[in-house]
Amino acid sequence: MRVLTLDDDRLLPSDPGTRTVAREIYGAVRALPIVSMHGHVDAALLAHNQPFPDPAQLLVVPDHYVTRMLVSQGESLEQLTTGDPREIWRRFCAGWHLFRGTPSRLWLEHELVDVFGVDITPSAESADLLYDELSAALRRPAFQPRALFERFEIELLATTDSPLSDLAEHLSIIESGWPGVVVPTFRPDTLVQINHPDWQANVQRLADISGIPTGTYPGYIAALEQRRHHFLGHGARATDHGVFSAETEPLDAGAASRIYQSALRGRLTPDQCDAFSAHMMFEMARMSRDDGLVMQIHPGVLRNHDPAIQQTFGSDRGFDIPVPVDFVHGLRPLLNAFGQDPKFRCIVFTIDETTYSRELAPLAGAYPSLRLGAPWWFLDSPAAMRRFREAVTETAGFYNTSGFVDDTRAFCSIPARHDVARRVDSGYLAELVVRGQLGLDEATETAIDLTVTLPRLAYAPR
Amino acid sequence: MRVLTLDDDRLLPSDPGTRTVAREIYGAVRALPIVSMHGHVDAALLAHNQPFPDPAQLLVVPDHYVTRMLVSQGESLEQLTTGDPREIWRRFCAGWHLFRGTPSRLWLEHELVDVFGVDITPSAESADLLYDELSAALRRPAFQPRALFERFEIELLATTDSPLSDLAEHLSIIESGWPGVVVPTFRPDTLVQINHPDWQANVQRLADISGIPTGTYPGYIAALEQRRHHFLGHGARATDHGVFSAETEPLDAGAASRIYQSALRGRLTPDQCDAFSAHMMFEMARMSRDDGLVMQIHPGVLRNHDPAIQQTFGSDRGFDIPVPVDFVHGLRPLLNAFGQDPKFRCIVFTIDETTYSRELAPLAGAYPSLRLGAPWWFLDSPAAMRRFREAVTETAGFYNTSGFVDDTRAFCSIPARHDVARRVDSGYLAELVVRGQLGLDEATETAIDLTVTLPRLAYAPR
Amino acid sequence: MRVLTLDDDRLLPSDPGTRTVAREIYGAVRALPIVSMHGHVDAALLAHNQPFPDPAQLLVVPDHYVTRMLVSQGESLEQLTTGDPREIWRRFCAGWHLFRGTPSRLWLEHELVDVFGVDITPSAESADLLYDELSAALRRPAFQPRALFERFEIELLATTDSPLSDLAEHLSIIESGWPGVVVPTFRPDTLVQINHPDWQANVQRLADISGIPTGTYPGYIAALEQRRHHFLGHGARATDHGVFSAETEPLDAGAASRIYQSALRGRLTPDQCDAFSAHMMFEMARMSRDDGLVMQIHPGVLRNHDPAIQQTFGSDRGFDIPVPVDFVHGLRPLLNAFGQDPKFRCIVFTIDETTYSRELAPLAGAYPSLRLGAPWWFLDSPAAMRRFREAVTETAGFYNTSGFVDDTRAFCSIPARHDVARRVDSGYLAELVVRGQLGLDEATETAIDLTVTLPRLAYAPR
User: Fold this and answer.
1) Does position A227 have pLDDT exceeding 90, yes or no?
2) Most Cβ neighbours (<10 Å): which of A344, B343, C33, C377?
């Protein structure tokens, strides 16, 4: 069996001189608290504070980065999601080499060594040993969610929540007296995408929970506004919008109302769905301008590329594939209306790297309301983060970006993900120092700003 | 207050061995004259040779790279363009950190230290001191435009001019006996974009200045040809075309004439405008083939993304945003007609980096008439220049590129911009040497070619 | 005259520490056999084993990478293809500087030094000397094709063949008793692109060679299946599809049949051609699932951009230009039908780099039947190979790629091309080691897998 260690200089630049500078910059941010403004951890985890059930449920089953890789090499998704946990773990360990060069490998190594104290590399041979070792750890109080939250030094954790949620778990965390800060994020996708199969049921539930009838378009809008205020009252900082396109063209009230009525009757053309989606993005921007919730947009993913996978296993199974996005025309109505308004803040994410230097950096380097989100999803990885800084900084600078967000369901990977970003940014800044573009003092200040100042500012209540 | 110096090795590679090689290559090009074939400095500046009024007018107000960054972080564009110069300067200095990692920072530092001898970093604290120091310098004869032109060792400066200009300033420079070479460039955008608000007035002015009636399409063409000959007579080397798309499909004479007549009557469909724009690109190529002016094309920018900014402050305010360009189909009619003709020379610029390896390098590596222009506008920056060389060289080589062009209105930034390009190219060539792909003698020769030989050749009278 | 040598460390990383690691990794793969699964060498070359006629025919005339570069700088294509061989060679040598920084330079240097023992750099001065030296070498038995094949240590060479070929040369190689393994590849482009000018003649020839009448669509399908089995019987591993778009939407049998009948009558709309092309890609995938031939797809090239060149000189003259490709929607029907089927294997190539991180890596990191082909055509070069690994690995890992393929008509460049890929991959892996992402043992194992294991596996009979 092979020893597992973490290289203390991992991800820092190869050139020794630059690495020395990077190490100094990284030293200033390594231990800063984690500001996690855009995550997908379930608040129930911290409300109930139950131990994680087993290593497979902890590290494999809920992580579509991991299962998709194993499936791409011939493993059965059914086995990986519903099989015996120890058997799942064995398959994962036997496929350890598949993760070479991927961010999953970095996160998993960091979790194994730094969170769980493991010192053996996963492999077919070591699988059972590791399973037993991790299982034992998970039974200890130090590995319960709240204990880990404190050990991770998380300053604030934002979750992602349906407008239909009463946020009972968030309330229960507050009322428990535990000092961890866990705030909800308003994600209305299934209420504004009128072709979503659950949409009609959802608008009825929206009426129920808000107490505002949603049989008319104005009622629907008022009910959404009521939910946003409910979220604000529970500490929410932001909304989050996973849309297919970046279109934001508003409809007039009559047209919006007519499409809404058609949607209620279940008679929709694809054009109506697209038009209403664009309109609701504009409306959500208008509401953000009015109530101060920061608007997060991440368009451009074709969900459930393989319908057979979706039918059998549901969504979020690794078969969501990025597509090109046109931010320039798409965001224009929204930015023309609200982009210069100091009460509005919009953060945009993409997985279409072609838009970094062509569209997003030029837009963010002009409109005061716009900030660029961190490299997201498939791009939450060292080389992609580096490409982001290289493509964006020269046009938009550092201060039109909003700092790192981890965007994960995998609670134990949060420190690893923030650490990767801190290392990559330190390396990038170190090269600017070595190439005479920045002083070391400036670079260090910038690293600190990217780590804590900018996310705090970008998501500050407005 | 913080000392301001220039690192003599700035932008050279981080690896010490590669840096040593880069330093040697750069040493061979550092002091070469500046060949500035595509700039936007006003000829009047050198005709009248008046001192620059104040530091804000010199370095902030006319530079949309600078104002857009300050606006993106909440400064008022009104204040920055019409406010008290000292107050504008203060805001610029207070926002100095926003430019970290941007080319503006490199240019401004170079100008402050190398052109004006400043040794203090801009900041809120140092703003007034710097303002007074720069104001004093600007009153000295050594900082008048012609003195700077000579100090910058500019071999040739091309300006950008309307076909409606009589080129009086260019003539006045020639007649003054001052030896600086300042040549005009023929930029007919507002005469060929028939949906431009001033188009009708402009074709009337075209008739007036050319003495050729423009009431018919043949007259319009003849008048444009007359203006090109006027420009040639005043030393022009090139034309310059800022178009939205790269389309170049010609119309037959009848169709062109019908659209022209509709344009005169002010009745146009968007399709007619697009068709006429494409047609006129083809016509301009035809004229270039006939008269030898080099044709420069830079498509793919959505101008005035925020109409409110345009309405209040006019164009060129930092709200022009790139869009994708299709060069392969767009340029095909033009290249099929003239791309193999030794009398025709076309230089193409882009801000859509996706086209470098996919479209532009393959086209330039085949058609003898085509050369690739330098990384342009937002891409006139160290990392983007490097990406250009990396994406283009392997397919098109060095000798299908046309050398660096500074593309600036900011006269004092010209040496800084050429210096950045020389440093980046030296670093790129040094890596080819260190990686055994080029001899040092070849790399040095190539660097010299990129700096002076290729721009001289690419824009040579044909 | 300038000495010509090969730097033993060429293309390895600049940083000395990283280079040391890279050298060790490269040492483990440098001498591995060549697995050449996707080439365009004519089987006749090895069947007849005739000496190469002269240096121009060996290195210049058939290599469109070389002729296009010379043409782009003003040389005449007519002269380069039909002129006196010595004169062609002189022009090539005089233009040696044009290849600086290109992969052609690397391949040519490797061939000259390593294959032919030349020690003088090509130039106008050395041209005749080199011509005579190479001519003398070509007359020696050691430089006949089979001797070179053995010296190159080629484990397997796949050629590219028309379904209309009887594969007589392949059979003759087998029957000759020579142990070299040369297998055909089934490339049906001119039989499935119904707007190809030779299509009608080709389907008639298909009937003749298969003995199955092609007057009906079912007959046409059966005849294609018969040819695939003929190829399988002669050792074929794969099919190869050069299509314009990535569309794979199938038609129902009736619609396919109707378009087929229209094609036979020569009455086709562009929409019908596109629909039939997409349909046939789906059909070819279905056949691959059934017979086990690996399906190779490389879409997205606009062939013969300059029709005048095509008319005078024919196809493959350097005027084929890449265009954007939509793999996400295009491949969806094919992947939904066969992407999870263990009997199906598909390898996708592209020259549109924007799809690496956005489309191809996410798709290959999910569908078990999909592998990513090596950087292809214009991207078969050091910086482009490096960009491929950087853009793809973090999402798809190494094991969803299929190893290097040389894709060349130029027989003597095969070792050079594989060597470049081995060096670039070693350098990339070395950086992962130095940055603490991989152990040296893992990196070395991965390098070996990329060099021989993965191509053997990816193209293994299924």
Assistant:
1) yes
2) A344
Q: Which residue of C has its CA nearest to A383?
A: C390
Determine, for residues C72 and B367 on separate chains, whether the beta-carbon distance falls below 8 Å.
yes
Decide: helix, strand or coil at residue B163: coil
How far B437 CA sits from the closest chain C CA (Å)?
7
> By CA distance, what is A429's nearest residue in B?
B101
Which other chains touch chain C, taking contact as 3+ CB pairs less than 8 Å apart? A, B
- Rounded to whole angstroms, how far apart are CA atoms C175 and C172? 5
Q: In this structure, how many other beta carbons lie within 10 angstroms of the beta carbon of residue C209?
A: 17
Q: Which residue type, as a one-letter code, is found at position B246?
A: A
Distances (CA, A) of A144 to A47, A52, A115, A116, A412: 11, 7, 12, 12, 11
ipTM of the complex: 0.97
Identify which of C71, C306, C321 has the shortest CB distance to residue B362.
C321
- For residue C382, give the chain B residue with the closest CA: B394
Furthest CA-CA distance within chain A: 69
Yes or no, beta carbons of B11 and A436 under 8 Å apart:
yes
Here the tokens at position B388 are 């250009």
Q: Is the pTM of this model over 0.95?
A: yes
List Cα–Cα distances, A198 to A125, A188, A300, in angstroms: 46, 12, 21
pLDDT in tens, A334-388: 999 999 999 999 999 999 999 999 999 999 999 999 999 999 999 999 999 999 9
CB A434 within 8 A of CB A18: yes
Nearest CB to B74 within list A342, A391, A442: A342
Contacts of B76 in chain A (CB under 8 A): none
Chain C positions touching B436 (Cβ under 8 A) are: 6-7, 9-11
Cβ within 8 Å of residue A265, ≥6 positions away: none
Q: Do the chains contact at A366 and B68, CB–CB below 8 Å?
A: yes
Whole-angstrom Cα distance, residue A123 to residue A97? 8
Contacts of B355-358 spanning 24+ positions with Cβ under 8 A: B355/B325, B355/B327, B356/B387, B356/B388, B356/B391, B356/B392, B357/B391, B357/B392, B357/B394, B357/B395, B357/C351, B357/C353, B357/C378, B357/C379, B357/C384, B358/C322, B358/C323, B358/C324, B358/C351, B358/C352, B358/C353, B358/C354
Question: Using a CB-CB distance cutoff of 8 angstroms, which residues of chain B are in contact with residue A19?
Answer: none
* Beta bridge partners of residue A186, listed in sequence order: A161, A239
CA atoms within 13 A on the CB side of C131: 21
Give the mutation candidate from C358, C360, C442 for the A interface (greatest A CB count, under 10 A).
Answer: C358
pLDDT in tens, C56-92: 999 999 899 999 999 999 999 999 989 999 999 999 9
Chain A / chain C CB contacts < 8 angstroms: 136
C231 token code pair: 């190829």
